Amino acid sequence: MVKVKSKFSANDALTPNQLNHLIENAKDETDKFILTVLGRCGLRSGELLHMRRSWVHVDDDESKIRGNNYIEIPIQVNWWCRCEECQIQKFISVHLMRYKKKYKTKHANSEWFLKVQKKFYKLKKGMKIYTEQELMKYIKEHKLKQDIKELKKEKKKWYERWYIKKNIEFYKLKSLPELKRKWEPKSTAGAGKVPVDDETSIILKAFFEIHKSLGMKRRTLYNRVAKYGLKILPDKNIYPHMLRATRATILANSGMFTSVDLKTNLRWANISVADSYVQPDVTRMFDAFKKLNKKE
Length: 296
Ligand SMILES: [Zn+2]
Description:
single chain, mainly alpha, hpI Integrase, Chain A, 2 domains, 15 helices, 5 strands, binds zinc ion
């Protein structure tokens, strides 16, 4: 069977039963955590990858004030991140600054972004960080006559020369400011509070009692979700964003969330996204009108 990823992840959303089946079968604690955060909390994969213990408010003073446990996605974090996603964002922002200055413009088109992204991956390919052992091995292999001790002293110089020879591009990348950044959500709307149920609270608490964060690359996360999905729901193509879409669908179908509630919960920048989830409901609109009318 050919499984195709839809253009809109909403079309790939699972039914509540399928989602439960997926989560309940997870024997591995990490799998369970990943699927819960994506499918029951609706977080984006970037948010899941950067999630820290401090984001989780389970049975603490803050959650008591809100009257419910919740996850808080912050506007910005106070630590530096060097994951691939953060590196590429930093790389783009540096290039964008230069581009804007050079061409006296405020915007760059998507073609430009793709070009810069391509450049990043091309440079990154040559950006292997060599360990001291690897360096010594290289020296020995090349039967270099210098005394090893002397070389160790001179290591830095050798190291650099080696790099120049091996990969000039590395220096181009190095000449940029350090590729680290303080992680930020997708947009300002991306920050916010996501209430969680009791079962989810237990899973979150248990995970962060042992781990500081998920500590996983984006690609590893995708592969892990896909591999697990294939085992449990073989006729479905499981990927992180469709689990978020599943969450949105479940909330929308409950009939208890307005488009604005959905936008707030899933932290969309535009309310128009809700259109793919919420169907016009005349009965609901009449009920709301009657309720208001009684109050007036
Ligand atoms: Zn990062």
